[in-house]
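As agreed, record copied across for absentees:
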Amino acid sequence: MANITFVMWGLGGTGFELVIYRIADQLAIEGHTVNLVSLVGWNYSGYNPTKYANVFTQRKFLRPLFSIQYLLESNKKVKKLSSLTPLFYELNTRILSNLIKQTKSDIIIATSWYTIIPTIMARGKYVFLQESIDAYFIYDQWKGVKKYISKAYSSNLTFLTISNYTDDIVKRFNSKGKIIRVGIFISDEFFRTQLVKPSQRKRIVMTIARTAPTKGFDTFVKAMNEIYRKRKDFEIHIVNADNVSLGDLGFKYIEHPRLSWKELADLYASSYVFVYTSRLESFGLPPVEAMASGTPVVMTRTEGSKDYGIHNYNSLIAEVDDYKKIAEYVEYLLDNPSEADRLSLGAIETAKKFKFEEFMKRFKKAIGL
């Protein structure tokens, strides 16, 4: 059995982190020693987000270094000080590398561009690549970030990718990089819902609200207001994934907090249509989760979604930021239940390609297990 370490920058509850936790638990169930090495724990607490893996974080007195870097990167109020970010990034990189070395692992896997250099310093060989890096270039978030990303992706590692988009990220910086497509998966819970035709469901329009500009929640709000001015024969349900105040959006809505997998699957399966208005995605899991529940999807065309989104077969697809087309498609489905049912069939067939068991076979083969 192997000693396997996943290198994290921080532990949280985003979709890409939950994917890693699920893989880690499965490898541990199979008898491997599995570690999550991270600068900080889950919300800085000692909570272990996995059931069976070990968690190693830096000492408490060093954690402010992570906080300062995060503040310099993300808080516009200290933008003038963002030139200091590289100093803290390099300090955190060395700390993380030393943490990795203490695990004495056989297999070390970076999980983001932030963790590639520390992984190399600890003699790791793999990167599990789920992330989108375009936002760093579009918003130029801190001085030097482009240089560090370029250095990370030009490294001589094996890149385990999830989509055509992530393949292209590697090729952009590294013409000789080894790429193994392992794909991605969705939770088994989404395949366990009771499948009811959309035409027999309550008219619920569902989305997931995220605060990052790249997630395009503002586009969803504009689209719903476009419809709500003309008709009110449907309900709007919003999963507040970031637990922030949504406030007055211009229409009535039912708010849901962050949900368990089962609760989320049940909400998908009871909704008439799921709307996803992201601007940047390396893949985009929520539309596939909805598809597994037999729910028609209206979404924007991102690079990542091109791997599974097929217009007029499993979804209706608009261009990024085109809230009027999103509104048009939602209204079309509200007025044509038979079309919602037809899209539901294509959605279910598409989702079957993203089962966890098949993913694990590819992932283990890629890392030599």
